[in-house]
Amino acid sequence: MNHHRIARLLESFSIHASQWAGSSLGFALALGTVLVWAVTGPIVGYSEAWQLAINTGTTIVTFLMVFLLQRAQNRESKVVQLKLSEIVAALDGASNRLIDLDRLSEEEIDALHRHYARLCELAAREDDLLAAHSIDEAERRHSEKRAARGARTGAATKTVKTG
Question: Taking the CB of residue 119, how many other CB atoms lie within 10 A of it?
């Protein structure tokens, strides 16, 4: 059996195991196991073997579930990132720099976060809540608005002084 086939079998198994573990039947089986364990406690006198059985069983299941959950989370994250990348690539005016963010350093991601935090600040000053634009456009429009307000204020001041 080659490596590719083994990988496909493991992938298929982990997908089915994750789906089953997250199902109502999976929960019912886990709950039933704990109830059977609890009911047998008095029968076996709450022995160390009885306690060891549940401790060992839950430790093994927890250990394996960590890997299944991480695998499912990694896959879901990749799918979401691909969908978002498709949207960014398709939108006119969207920055293609955002498509491959997972390859950026922590410092570069922090810099982009600061840029978008700035965009949020600028958007909060907008009268139109539905207005959306790139950072560059938002900063340009904000500067134009500031200049226009300054011109209006200056014109009003001149009118008051001359009038």
Answer: 19
| Token pair of 59 as six digits | 């430790």
Each residue of 51-63: pLDDT tens digit? Answer: 999 999 999 999 9
Q: SS3 of 1, please?
A: coil
- Size (the chain), residues: 163
Cα angle 133-121-124, degrees, rounded to a multiple of 5: 75
Q: What is the pLDDT of residues 67-96, one digit of tens each?
A: 999 998 999 999 998 998 888 888 887 777
Place of tokens 């900063």: 139
Reading the block at residue 14, the tokens are 């982990």
Taking the C-alpha atoms of residue 6 and residue 110, their distance in angstroms, rounded to an integer, is 39
Q: Residue 18: which residues within 8 A CB-CB, separation 6 or more?
A: 68, 69, 71, 72
User: What is the pTM for the complete model shown?
Assistant: 0.59
